[in-house]
Design a protein that fits this description.
Elements: H1 2-10, E1 18-23, H2 29-42, E2 46-52, H3 55-60, E3 71-75, E4 87-91, E5 94-95, H4 98-109, E6 125-126, H5 129-145, E7 156-159, H6 167-173, H7 202-215, E8 219-223, E9 230-234, E10 239-240, H8 242-256, E11 261-264, H9 270-278, E12 282-285, H10 290-303, E13 308-312, E14 318-320, E15 326-327, H11 329-345, E16 362-370, H12 375-392, E17 397-398, E18 406-410, E19 413-417, E20 425-432, H13 437-450, E21 455-456
Parallel strand pairs: 1-2, 1-3, 2-6, 7-8, 11-12, 11-13
Antiparallel strand pairs: 3-4, 4-5, 8-9, 9-10, 13-14, 14-15, 16-20, 16-21, 17-18, 18-19, 19-20
Length: about 450
């Protein structure tokens, strides 16, 4: 399916294609990769085996000068449990989207008889992709800071969660002068024995925060499994993820691109909106899903009179226009570290850039379970019923514009209920700014849920 899709996209015969394959640390990765290699070779495709890799690096195999592959495929399940696996597929134009995947699956169901010529033996080449990718990123940091060892005198620790991100400590930070002692869980281990590699995971963030304080580090960095997401921790243990991470990178982007539209997902805070607007930016809330926010930023750049240089989700997926709108955790962290290195020279700290970010008094997320088998119809019914709930509460109103689910504004906060992208669930996000208001809203919503068929709070 991938070969037929790519042949049409590239306007080439299969034997003119080169596909790069990489994987994260999951236990099933090697077997899946070997099966894919065997099939691609059987179809006459030239294969580049990149071994342990990252999602952003696999896209870069399609644009880096010494690679220029037709396609990069990352074998990963991102933040999902260790026993999951899947693929992320990249052409030169970017990641395969829903319509591409639909096409690939349709082709995969067809009988495909195009084969390599009889007797042709294709060699599978191996590549040190992470080594090459690291060198490119190090050159970018050196050029941007004007220093050959910009992190000299800084202690920066990395928590890779036993995913694929340990190289950032050893191949980049250490080579640029940082003290990386105290870094943890750098060795790949597909069982993830210490914590899930996920910057949204409470246990993971507590782990890196404790490590920063224990080691007396200037900064801590945590990556997800395939390194397309990241978060940081400051020297005082402050977690910079979610709204705080968006605020920090927005501050940097708006310095270089005044007036930029910052596209985020739907659950970002009102305090973040105010932060962006004070810096002259435009905050555009859109749908959940990193491809949704990226595609919306690209749409704005193509069709409107404003430009967007940043698309970012609260999950940590952040994509910059200057970097192919690729959600790359290492590039995002590099942008922050470049500024941190400059500020370190002046005796300043990176967290000072977001000192005026207003955080909500309380912010919670619930995942409401759909118990009916027709969960799509059930979810739509619940969302439709929210209109009636708003009518019963005169001080409440529906947000407009709103791009997914139902967002309800009430004095002192808001809540958003929507269909999950992946599971039979209705995620519910609530933000409040008044003491005791969170419990009051939750009480009303629990009563509302009791009246709905097939849903549990």
């Amino acid at each position: 399916g991938i070969v037929q899709w790519l042949s049409l996209k590239e306007h080439r015969k299969p034997n003119g294609l080169q596909i790069a394959l990489g994987m994260d640390s999951r236990l099933t990765g090697p077997d899946i990769k070997n099966v894919m290699i065997d099939e691609f070779v059987r179809l006459g495709i030239s294969v580049l085996d990149c071994g342990l890799a990252t999602t952003p690096a696999m896209f870069m195999t399609t644009v880096m000068e010494d690679y220029m592959c037709s396609c990069g495929i990352m074998i990963t399940a991102s933040h999902l449990p260790y026993n999951y696996n899947g693929f992320k597929i990249f052409a030169k134009s970017g990641a395969a989207d829903k319509s591409d995947i639909k096409t690939i699956l349709e082709y995969a169901l067809d009988k495909y008889e195009d084969r390599a010529e009889s007797g042709v033996k294709l060699a599978v080449r191996e590549a040190d992709l992470i080594g090459d990718y690291s060198k490119n990123l190090a050159r970018f940091i050196i050029k941007s800071t004007g220093m050959s060892r910009p992190f000299e005198g800084m202690k920066i620790i990395v928590d890779a969660g036993n995913g694929a991100g340990g190289f950032f400590a050893t191949k980049i930070l250490a080579n640029l002068g940082a003290d990386i002692s105290g870094s943890q869980f750098l060795e790949p281990d597909g069982t993830f024995p210490n914590h899930m590699p996920n910057p949204e995971n409470k246990e993971a963030m507590e782990s890196i925060s404790k490590a920063v304080l224990r080691e007396g580090a200037d900064l801590g960095i945590i990556f997800d499994t395939d390194v397309d997401r990241a978060a940081i921790v400051t020297d005082d243990g402050m977690e910079i993820n979610r709204n705080a991470l968006i605020a920090l990178i927005s501050d940097l982007v708006l310095r270089d691109h005044p007036g930029s539209v910052i596209v985020t997902d739907s659950i970002t805070s009102d305090g973040l909106r105010d932060f962006i607007e004070r810096r002259g930016g435009v905050h555009h809330r859109f749908k959940r899903g990193y491809k949704n926010v990226i595609n919306e930023a690209m749409r704005i750049n193509q069709r409107e009179d404003k430009d967007s240089y940043l698309a970012i989700e609260t999950s940590g997926h952040g994509a910059l226009k200057e970097n192919y709108f690729l959600d790359d955790g290492t590039y995002l962290v590099a942008k922050i570290l470049i500024e941190a290195a400059k500020m370190h020279q002046e005796g300043k700290k990176i967290q000072s850039l977001i000192a005026d970010l207003r955080q909500p008094l309380e912010s919670r997320e619930y995942r409401l379970k759909i118990t009916r088998s027709d969960f799509g119809a059930c979810a739509e019914g619940v969302l439709a019923a929210v209109d009636g709930l708003v009518e019963k509460n005169p001080a409440w109103s529906l947000a407009d514009p709103n791009y997914e689910g139902k967002k309800v504004i009430f004095p002192g906060g808001w809540f958003l209920i929507r269909k999950s992208l992946h599971e039979p669930l209705l995620p519910l996000n609530i933000e409040t700014d008044k003491e005791g208001l969170m419990d009051e809203i939750i009480s009303k919503l629990k009563e509302f849920v009791k009246e709905q068929d097939g849903i549990e709070f």
